[in-house]
Amino acid sequence: MAFNSKRNSASISGETSVTVQASLIAFGLAAPFATYAIAVSSFQQDTKVTLLVGLSVVYLAICVWTFLQMRQARSTEAVSVASGRSPVSDLEQKLLALEDAREFFGSSLKPADMFRLVANRVNEIVPFASCVLLVKDAETGMMRIGQASGTRSEQFEEELVSSDESLAGLAMLSGEMETSGELQGDARVFKEGLLDGFESTAALPLSHEGDTFAVFQVFFAGSEALTEDTRDKLFAINERISPLFLGSMAFERSLSNALTDPLTKLPNERAFHMVLENQLAESHRSRDERPLAVLAVDIKNFEDLNNDYGHAAGDRVLSFAADKIASQLRKMDFLARSVNDEFLIVLPKASERTAAEITGRIQSCFAMAPMKINEEDEIKLWLNFGFATFWKDGETSNELIQGALNKKQIAKLEDPSKVLAFPREYVN
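Request: output the structure for the sequence above.
Response:
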């Protein structure tokens, strides 16, 4: 009879888990498309905001329902398995919370949000003074602190640490948890004074299929904090947090890929629409204080350049143009590649005069910066521009974009300038 009860409980738990996972997958697939469809629709701004808020409320409700279902399934399983045994300990409950987080949030949170969640959970199990997440920096080969929590967290972020001498570097290399009751080694590679007040540390390697992709390091205020019991707890934690960070990093990469142009590495048109809608909402709320402009840019006679020099050269031209345009924009401006040789730019707080000034800067930059197209020739690129301003040229994203494109087309007809190609000797 007891065996049948356990089996039935397990069956119910399994069915609940499948239902929960199916719900999350279905909504996770539908939500991005629904959000994008609302953003680019012709609905009024108030209607769009209402629909997006409604979508958020639905997602929140699904999240709450899913969390409660999973906790209930866990409780049912725990009761059936614990029949005739002692109750689950406080430590096991906290470790179980980490596993719940992996199933519930594992592939739907960005690394920064996942780090905060894990840091709070770990601090409940093993109280620490500070903790950091280190990843290998591809350019320097050093360990870069991407996230930090606790004492001096702001000073920790973006710090570069030698992978050869640090405890985190050793954990990355060995793939095993490393602990130290003194910080002399790390004190030499961290910024001076950054580890003051810390006396012991542990570095937990985050691995997948034998490869370590990051290190979660905790610092303690006293050397006595790193007891054998603490080491055992950290070891149990280490086994559970690797899948969490792996899922969140994969989620960030997939999100980045979905919003990034693979050639120029700029945001794509989908990302542009999202940013423009956000800026338009701000401008609608404060029309007089929040001017806004959209700038459309393309390369004169780009098709001829592709035919003359080949598509590989055309790709280099697009990357060159993206870098030069970006160099002349303000920090608040948002540059994206649309289609072919078309670029779109959101200019927040930009009046018609400001948009014209930015256009002039970009033109001057290209006039003074020829590009080496091959061993013998260099070319000077000329661009077509068109910009539209909020309220004067349109109130919706589609109206502003179309207005900028129309003005660019008019400029093309009025100015027949072409891409110039000339020998390098002439340039020199």
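Residues 1-14, 79-88, 418-428 have pLDDT under 50 and may be disordered.
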